[in-house]
Structure formats: structure tokens, C-alpha cells
Amino acid sequence: MTESETACSESISQYNPIISIPVDLKYNLVCTGCGGVYFDDSLKCPSDNALLRTNYRNKKLFLKNAPGMGKYHDWLPVHEIITSDSGTVTYKSTELASELGLKNLYIGFNGYWPERGAFIKTCSFKELEAFPTLHKFRNLDTSLVLASAGNTARAFAHVSALTGVKVYIVIPASGVTRMWLPEEPTDSINLIQMGQNCDYTDSIHLAERISALPGMHAEGGARNVARRDGMGTVMLDASVFMKRMPDHYFQAIGSGTGGIAAWEASLRLLEDGRFGMRLPELHLSQNLPFAPMLNAWKAGRREIIKDIDMPEPKKLIHEMYADILSNREPPYSVVGGVYDALCSTNGSMHGISNNEAKTAQQLFESVEGIDIFPPAAVAVASLIHAVENGKVEADEHILLNITGGGVKRIEQDYQLYKIEPTAHAENANVSLSEIV
Asked: What global pTM score does this model have?
């Protein structure tokens, strides 16, 4: 038994408890720590620091006659059906599968690839988070505040432009090149660019300060169930397509929220009973040299020790190929977070070098015929690792989450507009009156 497996023996798998929901409600929230139940859209349990999880009235998943992610309305914490064509497209791979000697490799493509029926116009699965989150804010007289390394910012800006919901988005300077839209930016988008020495975590700290101002509302990050359940539709789409849950799920992570989302969606599918009786094994990957969750997991620890697991973090982040996969304060240790997701699914963590990611990116693009983002390339490389190390069998059902791609393809169909910052902040401690 490995150190991680030994530590996991003390971790409790968090299944949704059987809790009655009033007949006029679609869902409630349940604390994965103390079991407390909440009937409003809280971000945090007042009794502990554990994540809240959505508990839906409908335990069986029945698809709606809607495009994109809207078909999974039963398990999204919104009351009106999302009608955008944004959503995951699952298909069975032949070319990459043949290269790797796999018989049942399925790809969850999240990006723009109209020939495959994929219409995520910001080319990232972060759009799956943005639609349900901003859907909840459409009729509220408040501004949503969030931090991003780039892809989340672009997704929320896009949905803000479509819905008119006012957003304040804080990004590090490294994320500016990712700030484009397939439509002209609107006045509802307020982009705050941080100084050159700031990273994603600095952006989070500044966003927290802004969200405390009157008229502002924190988006919530990993604590936002709308974000997690939106990303969970990747697992739902694949399981509906395959008519079963996969045996293995591969995704690259920065915060790990997408991994948590895949686990929670799998728990609901397990409870449904029609998609299998075994949770998919999570294979989550980080881009070396910045890999705090990988380091803590390999050491068999729930806690991340900063000096050991991420020494000189900003230096390491600067050396990453997929620098967007960087979060110095990920939801790894929290109850209901990444550590528990890995334990519950008998999962694995993979460390991927820059060269491995680049080689995997070239392979995927050459055989599958679509460009992908560096984080997706990290996931492809982790699948190659797993095949080479015998962690997956040739006939097992495997889901590879391509979290972003199709930028070169969308440039053929749309004019892309740059989002200009409305304010600059040298660090997280600047006077808020200067930027808001």
C-alpha cells in the first residue's frame, strides 16, 4: 500500500446523503463536512471549512430538449434552461486510440470545432462554469467579481457580453494575451490587470477585497456549485454517450475544481444506477515544475506544505509551459476537495514536463486534426504516461477531457476582439478607489 493509499484509508468518501427537499425546490446544498443543509446559494458552511455540494431532487438524469449543456438542466443549479449551444462534445477516438493501442478511448472536446458539433466560442470548458453562474445573476442588481489566469476570464466576459451581467475580472499580466472575444466587448466587462510580478493567486486576493465592496458579489471559485456542476456536464455527456461511466478520467488541473466536478457528477450517476456501479478513477495531472498537489499526494499528505511542495512558486510558475495551471492555494486539502476526490476514486496524480506536454500536443493535433491548448496537452501526456506504465488496460473505457481547443479553427469563422483593461493594479494591496 502506497503512502497515499494509507492516508486515504482515513478519508471518508462524501456521498450525497438522503435528505428531503421541499416540493417547491429543485435542490438544496449539503455540507460535505458536517452534513448541514442549506436552502439558499451559500458559498460556505458556517460550521466548518468543507465544500458545499448540490443535492438535487431528481436522482435520475433525464435529458431536456435543449442544445449544449442545457440538456443536463436536471443537474444544474439554475431554474431556467440554458439555451446556448455551448457544451461538451464526446466522440470515440480512432486515430489517437490507435496510436496508443486503446480500444475504447473517448474524447470530451471542449472548444470550437463545428465539424464535430462543438461550439464553445471561447474555446475553453470554463464556459461551462460561466453560463450557469451568470444565469443566476441575470436579474440581480449586483456585480460579479472573480479572478482568473485567463481562460475563465474570457469565458465570463463572453457570457457577460451576451447577458449584460456586470463583471469585475482580475487577471495577472500573463493572462492578458488570452483576453479576446468572438464579439465586441461590452460596458458590462470590467477587466483589472495586475502587475508583472503578480500571479493568479495575487489576482484571487485582490478579487476577494473587491467583492467585499457594496454592490459586489464574490463569484466563489471552487466553492461555487454552479461552476462545479457546469464542469460536471463533461462527465455527464460522456456517460450518456457511452451509456456508462468511464473506467478512467484524465484531466490537467491548476486548482483541481474540474476534477472535483467530475467526481461529484460521477457520484450522481452512481446514485442514478443506470450508468454503472463503480466510480471512474481520476487521473489528474500538473505541469512541472509547479506541482504542489502532485507533491503532497505523492507524500501521502492531505496538507500542502508550501516550503516543500512549492518552493519559490512564482519562479516555478514562470517556467511552466501551461502556466495557466497554477494556483498556490488550490482546494486540495479542504473536505470534499481534490484529496478526497482522489481517495474516493482510487485516483492518481501525474507530473508532466514541458517537453512531454509539447510532444503530446503535436501528436494530438496531427492525428485528431484540431489544435488544443497547453493544459489539454498536459492531459494527453498523462494518458500516454498511464498507458506506458500499465495503469490503464487496452479495452477499458477511458475519457480524456480536452479542456480547450479550436482557436485556429474559430479564427476562420469569427473576428476576435481584444478586451482592453479598464484598470491596472500593481499588487493585491492597492487602494480599491484607484481601480473600481
From this structure: 0.95
